[in-house]
TrEMBL record:
<protein>
    <submittedName>
        <fullName>DUF5009 domain-containing protein</fullName>
    </submittedName>
</protein>
<feature type="transmembrane region" description="Helical">
    <location>
        <begin position="342"/>
        <end position="364"/>
    </location>
</feature>
<feature type="transmembrane region" description="Helical">
    <location>
        <begin position="138"/>
        <end position="157"/>
    </location>
</feature>
<feature type="transmembrane region" description="Helical">
    <location>
        <begin position="54"/>
        <end position="72"/>
    </location>
</feature>
<keyword id="KW-0812">Transmembrane</keyword>
<feature type="transmembrane region" description="Helical">
    <location>
        <begin position="229"/>
        <end position="248"/>
    </location>
</feature>
<feature type="transmembrane region" description="Helical">
    <location>
        <begin position="84"/>
        <end position="104"/>
    </location>
</feature>
<feature type="transmembrane region" description="Helical">
    <location>
        <begin position="110"/>
        <end position="131"/>
    </location>
</feature>
<feature type="transmembrane region" description="Helical">
    <location>
        <begin position="291"/>
        <end position="309"/>
    </location>
</feature>
<feature type="transmembrane region" description="Helical">
    <location>
        <begin position="260"/>
        <end position="279"/>
    </location>
</feature>
<keyword id="KW-0472">Membrane</keyword>
<feature type="transmembrane region" description="Helical">
    <location>
        <begin position="196"/>
        <end position="217"/>
    </location>
</feature>
<keyword id="KW-1133">Transmembrane helix</keyword>
């Protein structure tokens, strides 16, 4: 990781959209009380999609768009593959560090994870971008979605029989247990993982979707208005296709189903179209600063906020003879007495987001962008 000055022109709407997504990620990951969360701020129990379920696919979509902007002029660089590999390994390593922090118990470390999936999707999409013809992206996108549908819906699951989409008996869960063993999967299940191996395949398609929309945005043959129209049109078509496919292959974040890719990718494309039109085309940008500040240091705030949140849970304080974490003590002191449980939980999360905004604002004022 290194710091650098903000010397190159960036697509402001993309930084805004990325920042909005990351700020939402920090919000839903840090409620004051996990027992009192408003429904839109929780993941769907299994099938279905809440606003919280949109955050990760939106980020992978943004990764795809960013690849186009970051690598388009560097395709001829001899050291580009090495740089892509290095960045991917650092991201994966940061994910493993988060999985082991603070006890670093390698015997039970969760190998899959959010940063690990970002690393894999980035690596595959970036390599495809620099070594293959963009004309093949859509064909590959369709092939991935269809192949995953066939695997999940028609391939028998060893030890369980017919294909199914239940939590512990679907093919993706079986692959996770076979490859990682239960000791290295998500601690809340140990029998399947929401960022598992097989479901990373359609996650790559989410990145591909972003790359295709990024190429559209960078096109020199279309006007800005045409770009907005096509971004929205492709997004709307994907959104409707996802809803239709949901009838036979349910929208499901944990399985990252093909319908989920289309549904979320469509919404992301329409969302970016709106941001691009308002911010970059119409020039209404004054409101963007708080989220741009989040967007230019997205990985930094995701990683650091997780470390700080866990550290606050580790620090124990004694109140009235009872031991509790510093995080819970502060929450009980400043929020619980004054608000109902759900309001208090949300207020705690918003405070965490705001504190990180102040930290990122100081970095932004000093022109510091920490790149991974």
């Amino acid at each position: 990781m290194h710091s650098q000055l903000k010397t190159k022109q960036r697509l402001l709407s993309l930084d805004f959209f990325r920042g909005l997504t990351v700020a939402a990620m920090i919000l839903v990951n840090n409620p004051g009380d996990w027992e009192h969360i408003y429904a839109p701020l929780e993941h769907a129990n299994w099938n279905g999609c809440t606003p919280t379920d949109l955050i990760f696919p939106f980020f992978l979509f943004i990764v795809g768009v960013s690849i186009v902007y970051a690598l388009d002029r560097k395709k001829s660089d001899s050291g580009l593959f090495k740089a892509i590999l290095k960045r991917s390994l650092i991201l994966f390593g940061l994910g493993l560090f988060l999985a082991t922090f603070p006890f670093f118990d390698l015997a039970t470390v969760r190998i899959p994870g959010v940063l690990q999936r970002i690393a894999v999707v980035y690596f595959i999409c970036a390599v495809l971008f620099i070594y293959t013809n963009p004309n093949y992206f859509f064909k590959l996108f369709v092939l991935i979605l269809m192949a995953y549908w066939v695997l999940m819906m028609f391939v028998p699951v060893p030890g369980f029989g017919a294909s199914n989409l239940e939590k512990e008996t679907n093919l993706a869960a079986w692959v996770d247990r076979a490859v990682f063993t239960e000791a290295h999967l998500w601690s809340l299940s140990r029998t399947w993982d929401p960022e598992g191996l097989l479901s990373t395949l359609p996650a790559v398609a989410s990145g591909l979707f972003g790359m295709m929309m990024g190429l559209l945005l960078k096109s020199k043959t279309q006007s800005q208005s045409e770009k907005v129209a096509w971004l929205f049109a492709y997004g709307f078509i994907a959104f409707i296709a996802g809803l239709c496919w949901d009838l036979i292959f349910p929208i499901n974040k944990s399985l990252w189903t093909s319908s989920f890719v289309l549904y979320t990718g469509g919404l992301a494309s329409m969302g970016l179209a709106f941001c691009y039109w308002i911010i970059d085309v119409q020039g209404f940008s004054r409101f963007t600063k708080p989220f741009v500040i989040y967007g230019v240091n997205a990985i930094t705030v995701f990683f650091a906020s997780a470390i700080i949140a866990r550290s606050l849970n580790l620090i124990q304080v004694t109140i009235n003879g009872e031991s509790t974490s510093l995080k819970n003590y502060l929450y009980q002191l400043f929020y619980v007495p004054y608000l109902n449980p759900y309001h208090a939980s949300l207020a705690g999360a918003l405070t965490f987001v705001f504190i990180w905004y102040l930290i990122l604002w100081l970095m932004y004022k000093r022109n510091i962008i920490i790149k991974v």
